[in-house]
Design goal:
The protein has 104 residues and is mainly beta. The protein has a domain at 9-75: SH3 type barrels, CATH 2.30.30. Helix content is 0%, strand content 45%. It has no helices and 10 strands. The chain has strands spanning 9-12, 21-27, 31-34, 39-44, 55-60, 63-64, 68-72, 77-79, 81-85, 91-95. A 6-stranded antiparallel sheet has the order 6-3-2-1-7-8, with no helix packed on it. The protein has a two-stranded antiparallel sheet with strand order 4-5. The chain has a two-stranded antiparallel ribbon with strand order 9-10. A hairpin with an 8-residue loop joins strand 1 and strand 2 (21-27). The protein is elongated. It starts with 8 loop residues before the first strand and ends in a 9-residue tail after the last strand.
Length: 104
């Protein structure tokens, strides 16, 4: 079970985009793609079969998962994540600072 999942709100804790917040679009094994974070320019050829125009396209590149923290809206800052097993046997993510359950 991953500490950071697709759709989570995260905050970047180091690097060029430090302090910026965004939603996780994709998660690989140890890398995440965050919306509007780590934008790079790609020079692409046109592909008429995929209806894709050519040119310079700006898109998000991945950043290492250790450079982001899950955003805690109650504390208004990034927070560490732990796991807890509920009485009914479900394993849920919790914020380390407050013990509050991340996903209901």
């Amino acid at each position: 079970m991953n500490k950071i999942r697709k759709g989570d709100q995260v905050i970047v804790i180091t690097g060029k985009y430090k302090g910026q917040r965004g939603e996780v679009l994709r998660v690989a094994t140890d890398r995440v793609v965050v919306q509007n974070i780590n934008l790079v320019k790609r020079h692409t050829k046109p592909n008429p079969q995929a209806n894709q125009p050519g040119g310079i396209i700006e898109r998000e590149a991945s950043i290492h998962i250790s450079n982001v923290m899950l955003f805690n809206a109650a504390a208004n800052k990034g927070d560490r994540v732990g796991f807890k097993t509920l009485d009914d046997g479900r394993k849920v993510r919790t914020f380390r600072s407050s013990g509050e359950v991340v996903d209901a």
